């Protein structure tokens, strides 16, 4: 039977066909199983976020300027876990914006990745950026300085501030450079200066609203030099007798050559200080003498520039015997006491020594110590004149006239483009007379003569 089957050609063909079918089914099943395993392996995906990835920008950096591209972006990477971990660890891919064919003006560009495996997907956040492409321009600007009260000790001011170099170069988009209103050098430290200084400062460009502008500055740092001086308020001194002399003695006069001093302190403190009372102790006085007296520092002030003054004290013996002149007696010749407790008879000579006041009006203000490169315009008082109230012996006051007085405003601390307020000093007043001025200060608008010359040249060119 088997021999007949084996010798039959069709029987062998059928058997071979069955074996081939069995083999095909077996191989197909194995391939399907392996494919499922591979698919399951490939679908073991992961995702990671890579933060702060730098953005590279490709454009014509010689002739164009680009703003609006973020410095960094975040990138979410998805794909096979091993590749994701590797890409995050090595960060060997690039995020870029290609603007080589972009037109001048505003546009929205798409960010792309480079050097990332094609088996990974990347999602960039943000994906796009609104950019402004402008013609790249370069201009020179003078450097201003930003030095204020925060940089100075209380009672000090700064003048003659210079920078080295005085000009810097600014490069950037044309429309941004055109917005530059100020180029300022600002001190990096927080020192409070009491003496002249020379420090390094950072240069920044601002628009007219003091917004910082995105431009390139060269050099980015300059040297600032400044002259620091003490400033304050000039106030008169008022001598005040304290203590008592012996019963047989009286103080007839107290005078000093120093009639005013400069007080240092904050503007708020100085605004309420109009004079300084100097106590003079006379309890140890036995005759005419000169004493060195300490000048007290007023409440709220930090310092007085003149620490001590010399006070001349004159005395007289008291006459305890009442005198009568029957030939010339009148009801108005009774003995009287003056303000110092000294008896007097109301004679013309003693009346001349009695303290009194005198006011002289319309004295013009003169300026002094103004830098040669500055000009000052009086702002207050508007008429440029003040009143002076004098206090002292009547005979001395009678000798003082407006023609012998000079009112000075010291502008040594003034700087360009500012409003400068200063106290007033008066010369030509005898040492035994004290004084006050009304108003006590003058205010000036300070400008640079260079600015005036530049404006005149500009007006001449336009005409």
UniProtKB/TrEMBL annotation:
<dbReference type="Pfam" id="PF07949">
    <property type="entry name" value="YbbR"/>
</dbReference>
<protein>
    <submittedName>
        <fullName>YbbR-like protein</fullName>
    </submittedName>
</protein>
<dbReference type="InterPro" id="IPR053154">
    <property type="entry name" value="c-di-AMP_regulator"/>
</dbReference>
<dbReference type="InterPro" id="IPR012505">
    <property type="entry name" value="YbbR"/>
</dbReference>
<feature type="region of interest" description="Disordered">
    <location>
        <begin position="315"/>
        <end position="355"/>
    </location>
</feature>
<feature type="compositionally biased region" description="Polar residues">
    <location>
        <begin position="339"/>
        <end position="355"/>
    </location>
</feature>
């Amino acid at each position: 039977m088997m021999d007949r089957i084996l010798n039959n050609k069709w029987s062998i063909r059928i058997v071979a066909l069955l074996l081939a079918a069995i083999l095909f089914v077996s191989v197909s099943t194995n391939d399907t199983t392996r494919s499922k395993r591979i698919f399951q392996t490939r679908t073991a995906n992961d995702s990671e976020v890579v933060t702060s990835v730098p953005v590279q920008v490709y454009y014509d950096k010689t002739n164009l300027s680009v703003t609006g591209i973020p410095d960094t972006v975040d990138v979410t990477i998805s794909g096979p876990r091993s590749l994701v971990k590797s890409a995050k660890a090595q960060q060997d891919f690039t995020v870029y914006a290609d603007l080589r064919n972009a037109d001048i003006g505003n546009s929205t560009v798409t960010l792309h990745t480079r050097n990332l495996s094609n088996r990974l997907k990347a999602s960039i956040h943000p994906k796009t950026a609104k950019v402004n492409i402008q013609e790249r321009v370069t201009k020179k600007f003078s450097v201003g300085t930003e030095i204020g009260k925060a940089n100075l000790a209380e009672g000090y001011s700064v003048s003659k501030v210079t920078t080295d170099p005085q000009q810097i170069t600014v490069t950037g988009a044309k429309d941004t450079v055109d917005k530059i209103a100020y180029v300022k050098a600002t001190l990096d430290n927080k020192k409070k200066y009491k003496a002249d200084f020379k420090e390094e400062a950072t240069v920044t460009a601002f628009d007219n609203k003091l917004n910082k502008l995105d431009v390139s500055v060269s050099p980015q740092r300059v040297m600032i030099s400044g002259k620091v001086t003490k400033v304050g308020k000039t106030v008169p001194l008022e001598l005040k007798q304290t203590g008592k002399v012996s019963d047989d003695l009286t103080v007839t006069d107290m005078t000093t050559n120093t009639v005013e001093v400069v007080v240092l302190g904050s503007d708020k403190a100085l605004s309420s200080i109009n004079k300084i009372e100097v106590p003079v102790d006379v309890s140890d006085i036995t005759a005419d003498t000169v004493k060195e007296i300490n000048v007290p520092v007023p409440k709220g002030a930090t310092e007085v520039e003149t620490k001590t003054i010399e006070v001349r004290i004159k005395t007289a013996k008291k006459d305890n015997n009442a005198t009568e002149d029957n030939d010339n007696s009148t009801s108005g010749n009774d003995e009287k006491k003056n303000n110092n407790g000294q008896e007097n008879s109301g004679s013309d000579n003693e009346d001349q020594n009695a303290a009194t006041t005198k006011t002289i009006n319309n004295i013009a203000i003169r300026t002094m110590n103004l830098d040669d490169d500055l000009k000052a315009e009086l702002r207050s008082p508007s008429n440029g004149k003040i009143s002076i109230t004098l206090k002292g012996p009547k005979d001395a006051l009678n000798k003082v006239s407006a023609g012998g007085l000079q009112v000075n405003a010291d502008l040594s601390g003034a700087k360009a483009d500012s409003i400068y307020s200063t106290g007033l000093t008066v010369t030509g007043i005898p040492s035994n007379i004290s004084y006050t001025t009304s108003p006590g200060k003058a205010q000036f608008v300070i400008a640079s003569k260079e600015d005036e010359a530049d404006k005149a040249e500009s007006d001449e060119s336009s005409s």
